[in-house]
Amino acid sequence: MTDLAQDLLSSFVIAEAELNGSKNLAVVNMRKEALDRFEALGFPTTREEEWKYTNLKPVLNRDYKIMLKSESAVSFGDIKQYLLSDLDTYKLIFINGKYSSWLSESTHQSYDICTFAAALNKYPEILSKFLGKAAPSGETFVDLNTAFADDGAYIRVKANQTVDKPIEIIYLTTEENGSTFSQARNLIVVEQNAEVQIVERHQNLGEHASFTNFVSEVFAARDARVSYYKVQNDSTKASLVDNTHVRQESNSNVHVGTYTFGGKLVRNNLHFYSGGERTESHMDGITIIGEGQTVDHHTLVDHQEPNCYSRELYKGIYLDKSHGVFNGKVLVRQKAQKTNAFQQNDNILLSDKAKVDTKPQLEIFADDVKCSHGCTIGQLDKNALFYLRSRGIPKREAEGLMTYAFASDALEYVTIPQLEKRLNRVIADKLGINLEFAL
Residue 433: helix, strand or coil by DSSP? Predict the structure, then answer.
């Protein structure tokens, strides 16, 4: 067992009584059982199939502080650049894992937009129905999060309600704790015929290393509509393991977009479970990384019922000595006849030192389905590059235009114009092109 694992186990003994939900026996037992599973499992290594391409040792082999202080004074000016400042939104801001009420804008009017801590303390009926029901036990980082997560976002949209503006969730890590290991959790419940748009971001504001172990559970009831955008553009001092698990009921439509441009090591585990007929599941991703960065996307779409649709499109652009991983599985169970599933992972290597490991998978146990999957790894088309250069466009700008066009179709399902504009500018900046000229 690693030193970090031992530190976590020791810290839990001290922290347990202070964690939110400690007066709820069911939560207390859930935490203890999860910690026992973590102790038995330990952190995954490259000897395990699901982690064979991603080595955690460099980011785990640090002296992290686990019990964090949140005394740092953070002003709106400090975080403005990370917000969609030209758009009116609800805001849930967390500093070192703790909710900042004075930077946030929450509500309990027609829907609950508040904190996971509040749910742990005030809504036992919600916890018993939803907590731990989407994210599976027996997975190291999920179990560790279940044991330690003390705060995060709690969103409940009641039946037939549409949230009147997008929700931004920002997790900030400051300098005062040194190198940190933090854990937060989102619980998102969207009831029948309700609708919500969510934008989430993690940001390290300091110069020390940070490791975030994060879990989101999303429940979309019949006819619910959920758009959930993850913007990952953190510093190269930050590492993130993100587990997002989505359970859908009949006729629900859920889109999760994952846009990764920063971080030292980022692992995204995104799982969809269709628990009713005629669900739609959309998964889009764009990755643009460079020197020394690793991004690992692991996805699962589990089609459990008939007449469902899933669409998955991930684009990767790799510069310098970067490493990308895509492992996507579409599972069609025997009952899930008439499933229509599409999965595609396309990658461009802009450096001889960049590397990609990709493994699209289909497991089909039904006989009346329409499923396809594929992957590509290549470099820029030399003929197209020659054509652009022959029109007077310098090589670097021509390469940028081509890679920009390659990535942009993964933004098709972004329904917040201000977010789409922000993402376009980040992509253009990463590729070194003039956005006005490109558009």
Answer: coil
Give me the domain span that covers residue 88: 3-274
Within 8 A by CB and 6+ apart from 47, the residues are: none
- DSSP string of 53-88, one letter each residue: T---HHHHSS--B-S--------HHHHGGGS-TTS-
- Residue 375 located in a structural domain: no
Residue 203 to residues 214, 235, 255, 262: CA-CA distances in angstroms? 13, 7, 23, 10
**Bridge-based pairing state of the strands 90-95 and 167-173:** parallel
- Interhelix angle 3-15/140-148, rounded to 10 degrees, is 30
| Shared domain check, 391 and 254 | no
Residue 93 phi, psi (nearest 5): -110, 130
Is 312 part of a structural domain of the chain? no
Decide if 387 contacts 417 (C-beta within 8 A).
Answer: no
Last residue within a domain, chosen from 274, 291, 326: 274
Statement to judge: residues 149 and 7 lie in one domain: yes
Domain tally, the chain: 2
Q: What is the DSSP string of 193-232?
A: T-EEEEEEEEEE-SSS-EEEEEEEEEEE-TT-EEEEEEEE
Q: What is the pLDDT of residues 410-432, one digit of tens each?
A: 999 999 999 999 999 999 888 88
Q: Amino acid identity of 178?
A: G
The two tokens of residue 242 are 């993100």
- The pLDDT of residue 348 is 94
pTM for this structure?
Answer: 0.95
Collapsing DSSP states into helix, strand and coil, what is residue 304? coil
C-alpha angle 326-331-335 in degrees, rounded to nearest 5: 170
Is 159 inside a domain boundary?
A: yes
What confidence tier does 1 reach under pLDDT thresholds 50, 70, 90?
A: low
> What is the C-alpha separation between 28 and 45, in angstroms, rounded?
29
Looking at 243, 258, 274, the residue that finishes a domain is 274
For residue 4, give every residue at least 6 positions away whose Cβ sits within 8 Å of its Cβ, in sequence order, or none: 43, 60, 61, 62, 64, 181
